[in-house]
């Protein structure tokens, strides 16, 4: 019985992780195709600014959801927070899929966003608290991979339902997003409480039972169980005594240089969005239209291929990120993405003619020859593949590994919210940029990518293979402690 439980829980939490990633990714991807569907455009006639707000309303919700997650998960626990997030998501999903007015659509997107943002904090936290420590590192890359699977699925569903000649064309993809959420709702009932949270709420006996069921077929006295329990207990006591009580502590300089680490975490998350990846993820069909694909079906097909490229190119990261290191990955990715964007912008600038598309209500570029169209499409794929092996996973890995335990929760909720904030801004302004300065949009992102590669080279220390204590040496004010040592030495000598 015990061992069955281990497998069921282990399996369910792994599946939970995958479903969660798929839900996150599906939600990011699904809207891009919908915005271009004829039936959607008939019911929701919108220009660039309105399109931006349909995309960005979800992301605004995500920002607040991520900020609220820390408090909620401490109050009601991880398990029930996942449940709340999934139920809220279902409500948001139903509102979107059944909407007939802009107001209902925006409300549905904001509500779904609150859930996505909340879950983006809690699922990884819960995962890391119930899984054996050997596999914790891999989880971050795996989560990124399931996000890309979700994006790819959504692109292909959009492509498939485009063929339907009724409003179901856009409603079905929105109904489908509820499926993984319902599976999460049901699955949560079978999941155990996080042992870490139980100990933090003085429910030690229950924590030992959960650990025993997860790790040793129900044997509460097994060494693994007792050791892990002791470790958790020590951690909790430690955190209660010295953990950061307020967000102000994130601004402290001190010998540990917390402020520097927070800034590095915040900037790497903002940079991840400023690469322009979501310009492509949210507006791919329109971008393919600039690349010379005339009909909607071929644009959605190219978008589907884009989803596959993104998914497949994440695999090398899962395998090699720990060997290659963070810095070379981020720098090479930044330079490759920057070059691709600059090439795309230059081709559009030199071979394109601007025109106004009456049916879509905005400006596009017409490319005068097939060669330049193909080149643009190829470089969009090169850009996406370069993001997928580098900034996609590493943008999340780096902030997860640089903070000392006592401030990790607070620091990560700030860095995660920052990712959503910049994601929101990109979602909002990109359609306006694509309509007004078209090729200039690509040049702006291209320049950002190159500058960010330089910033990584100059400011970011390599964190590959470093333990928590080594992180302190890496980021701490080494000069200051050296001076201290020197002074002490001199004093002793005197
Ligand atoms: C980013 C998302 C992005 C996705 C694309 C994630 O790491 O945070 O904003 O849409 O990668 O695969």
Short structural summary:
The chain crosses the membrane at residues 12-34, 54-73, 80-98, 110-127, 139-157, 172-193, 262-284, 304-321, 333-352, 372-391, 411-433, 439-460. With 494 residues, the chain is mainly alpha-helical.
How would you describe this protein?
The protein has 494 residues and is mainly α. 79% of the residues lie in helices and 2% in strands. It has a two-stranded antiparallel sheet with strand order 1-2. Helix 4 runs antiparallel to helix 5 and helix 14 packs parallel to helix 17. It starts with a helix and ends with a helix. The protein binds beta-D-glucopyranose (BGC).
For CATH, the homologous superfamily of the largest domain is named as: MFS general substrate transporter like domains
Helix content: over 70%
How much of the polypeptide forms β-strand, as a percent range?
under 5%
CATH class group of the largest domain: Mainly Alpha
Name the shape in a single word.
globular
Overall tally of domains: 2
Low-confidence stretches: none
Secondary structure: number of strands:
2
Ligand inventory reads: beta-D-glucopyranose
* Structural class computed from helices and strand pairing: mainly alpha
The overall pLDDT, averaged over residues, is 87
The CATH topology of the largest domain is given as Growth Hormone, Chain: A
Please list the strands of the largest sheet in the order they lie side by side: 1-2
